[in-house]
Known about the structure:
This protein is an all-alpha fold. It has a domain at 623-694. It has 24 helices and 2 strands. The protein has helices spanning 23-32, 40-63, 67-91, 101-122, 126-130, 136-164, 173-195, 198-223, 227-262, 281-289, 291-297, 302-316, 318-335, 342-373, 386-412, 419-438, 444-486, 488-497, 508-511, 525-540, 545-594, 599-619, 672-681, 686-694, and strands at residues 636-639, 664-667. Strands 1-2 form a two-stranded antiparallel sheet.
Amino acid sequence: xxxxxxxxxxxxxxxxxxxxxxxxxxxxxxxxxAGERGAEWIWLAVLAGMGAVLTWGLPAVLERAGCLLRKDxxxxxxxxxxxxLAAQVALLPADEGGGLAVPLLVGxxxxxxxxxxxxxxxxxxxxxxxxxxxSRWEVWRVKMGVSGAALLLLWAVTMLSxxxxxxxxxxxxxxxxxxxxxxxxxxxxxxxxxxxxxxxxAVFSLAAPVLAVAVAAIGILVWGGSxxxxxxxxxxxxxxxxxxALLAYAGAATVATARRWQTMEAPDAGAGETAGVxxxxxxxxxxxxxxxxxxxxxxxxxxGRLVTLAIKEVRLxxxxxxxLGVMAVCWVVLQGMxxxxxxxxGLQGLVLLLAGMTMLLAGATxxxxxxxxxxxxxxxxxxxxxxWQWRVKGVLALALGVPACFAVYGVVRHLAFPMPLILTGLxxxxxxxxxxxSSGAANALRALLGSLVLxxxxxxxxxxxxxxxxxxTEQVREWLxxxxxxxxxxWRALAASLPPVPPDSSPFEARxxxxxxxxxxxxxxxxxxxxxxMARRNFxxxxxxxxxxxxxxxxxxxGLTATCxxxxxxxxxxxxxxxxxQVLTHVRWALAVERTLSPAEVRxxxxxxxxxxxxxxxxxxxxxxxxxxLNFPARIVPVLLRPASDPLEEEAPDPRRExxxxxxxxxxxxxAADRATIIERGELPEDLREALRGEMPTFQPxx
Length: 703
């Protein structure tokens, strides 16, 4: 199972995954590069070198190392790869300050810091480890050393990925993130040993400093005076005091971790992982499994049994509820902060991180935790149908995810489009995806990591779909307006065949939009319903679910890809139809203007615009020249004038004269004065001048 932990055994396929470290930054750089790439190639080469060392150099070192070191490296491999993938995906959008990569890096660091000790509780291997003829100090040193090296590598790869994308994190953000990673390395193992739970340790290690920051922010808001004074206080001595307290907290927690590990004892009975400061999840499930508990609840019929099931599910979601509570506190504090505060930006990242953890934990814990405790198959014997059991699990998990989704939308709604749409969509689908992975995973940790990988890949697909939509709409727009130049008569005939439009009516493109356009966002329900359907099937057949959850994840990604492509096609078609309406509106307006012009004015417009674009093409060879008069502005005509014969004659200022290469623009139809000016001073062919003069019998040249 852990091939990399055993020397001279076939290697796990994931051991080759580090070779892909430069792929996403390279693709993101290609998509967003505005010019030639310089130093970015150096960072890509560094990432490729790191991937090669991790792929071939690390296994060679591990073959000569002890079993303890090999086991701890294997434990962190999947979590490290998932954290790197999530951080690189979050770096793809061009956001200042790292965007979502910062909270994702913090979340990945906290989870990885909890794993060296938490995995012993999760897999129930703590008694065997404590009974080994190895010094506990040696075990602690190896676990903390491997954890520190993995966290440092995670930070380095994230920083290098940002630099390879051409968007290095600004200012002191890298140093601040390194400090946060150090705090996670020192404090998270202590909370893991205290709570005897991997997930609870990760949540509490994150909750403690977050709640301290929230309390400090409340104090500054209440007693800090004016907003400007509060901001100076927060960004001044309060920041220095906070960093000092965090580092002291990390150092004290590291010492406390060593002391607690030296005196650690395995429980004689109960689940391998108990909830420590929580009410024991294992005891809860066992009490629900006992027939007497259900028989006593059966006195009230189905309602009493459902209440018992709901209580059991709530106690299984204890860690999720704790995460949701911390997120709620941060959200309340954030609402009272001025939006310009630097602290407000930090709290926004924490709210996003806690909301994501809430949604993933709600789905990952629902089914996988019961499989780890060995109670999932036994629920078939309960006097409650499998349908009602699934409804209780699904409703509670989705209910926990609803406030987290609202929190995500509240934080990201001010970002530039399409980021609010992508992030809110991923948040809505996080709980169903976590339920799908949880229905086949062996424990909540695997469900959490699998869900994180699927959500990250869904984010890649969403970003790709948005890029495909933008490129497709641009191509459709260019093709439509180009066809107006190559086939003007077709557009004239099509515009003439349309019914007349009242002057006060809406534009044609707004009235001609098909009704199904509004239903395109409903396509997002397809992958959500697909994930829920697969999770329900696996819950009804728990014995075979672990054999097909990877295949189910692949099928779900395939369905999501098909849905994204269908949505892009429909959206491009809808926008193309709207653009077609714009072209028709322009053609109808141009034809309506042409009907108000005399033949000489129509020819003047054609000749003058043609000369202007010929001159423009000589100055700017890359400029796109309209191929049809229907593309030209219908109400103005640029005319190059000779100097006035009277130096004292003043002309009306024309702000567009410089734009049109020294030409003066005249409004169509021409007034008598403008017509006289063009006839007398315009650089025109003589036959056109005579045509304009012929339409003005009262014209008299100036002497």
